[in-house]
Specification:
This protein is mainly beta. It has a single domain (2-221), classed as Mitochondrial biogenesis AIM24 (Double-stranded beta-helix), CATH 3.60.160. Helix content is 8%, strand content 44%. It is built from two helices and 19 strands. It has helices at residues 53-66, 195-198; strands spanning 2-7, 11-16, 19-25, 29-33, 40-44, 72-78, 81-85, 91-96, 102-105, 110-114, 117-123, 135-141, 147-152, 157-160, 168-170, 175-180, 188-191, 207-211, 217-221. A six-stranded antiparallel β-sheet has the order 5-6-3-10-13-8, with no helix packed on it. Strands 11-12-9-16-19-14 form a six-stranded antiparallel β-sheet. A hairpin with a 3-residue loop joins strand 1 and strand 2 (11-16). It is elongated and about 60 Å long. The chain starts with a strand and ends in a 14-residue tail after the last strand.
């Protein structure tokens, strides 16, 4: 059995009782503590976390084709241990997903997840102007120990309209993930283009993700924008 905790906001602590398997971002291990010698090992997950070889191969092809390819490392644990994972001093947020609960997340922001999470890549209509093209990664709870650890640049902010029914608008370059109460709850894309974009005088906020009040959603954003975002202008 695995449980996730955070240490000083920047490190993931994984506590293992017995035998289990963990999937993490390749190279993210920083330390470990186990009785009677090291009882865990690392190997590259060449095709992905799926146990079925055909599904794993198809998933690997899809991830590479959509830009959602995540270099994964499989950690096999054989006995009680405590291991630690981090990535370039980024903040770590831990979620314990209920069975059937899904989080949609950028692949680059995934630090680790347990084998009780079903990991897939799917297409979203609004992705045409997102960082990862037409796709996003999803993790769905498939058991009682479905833990996910997500990376953010700085302390994250969580916006939710589950109670207020307000409209949430965010910059796609700052979005980390979102979770809805009814299915995937994907956002709508809103464009704000004018002749100023063509002469390089745009505001810098030409597109956004929007969830209307009828969608019960929680959105996690970081206080930092990705620098490789789309720029619409003419020199």
């Amino acid at each position: 059995m695995l449980t996730f905790e955070t240490v000083n906001e920047l490190t993931l602590k994984v506590i293992c009782s017995g035998n289990d398997v963990l999937f993490t971002k390749a190279g993210s291990f920083i330390a470990g503590d186990s009785p009677n010698g090291k009882n865990y090992k690392f190997e590259k997950a060449l095709l992905g976390p799926q146990s079925n070889l055909v599904q794993a191969a198809l998933g690997s092809i899809l991830r590479r084709a959509t830009g959602e390819n995540l270099p994964l490392m499989k950690v096999t644990m054989q006995g009680d241990s405590v291991t630690y994972y981090a990535n370039q001093s980024q903040h770590v947020v831990v979620y314990h997903l209920a069975v059937g609960e899904t989080v949609s997340v950028e692949s680059e922001n995934i630090l680790a997840f347990t084998q009780d999470c079903k990991y897939t890549v799917r297409f979203i209509g609004c992705g045409v102007v997102s960082q990862k093209g037409l796709a996003t990664s999803t993790l769905t709870g498939a058991g009682s120990q479905a833990y996910v650890a997500i990376l953010t640049d700085g302390n994250p902010i969580v916006l939710s309209n589950a109670q207020s029914q307000r409209t949430i608008v965010v910059d796609p370059d700052a979005v980390i993930c979102w979770m809805g109460q009814n299915g995937y709850c994907d956002p709508q894309i809103k464009m704000d283009l004018s002749w100023k974009n063509l002469i390089g005088q745009a505001s810098g906020e030409s597109y956004s993700f929007e969830w209307h009040g009828g969608q019960s959603v929680s959105v996690v954003i970081q206080p930092s924008e990705r620098t490789e975002g789309i720029r619409i202008s003419m020199d």
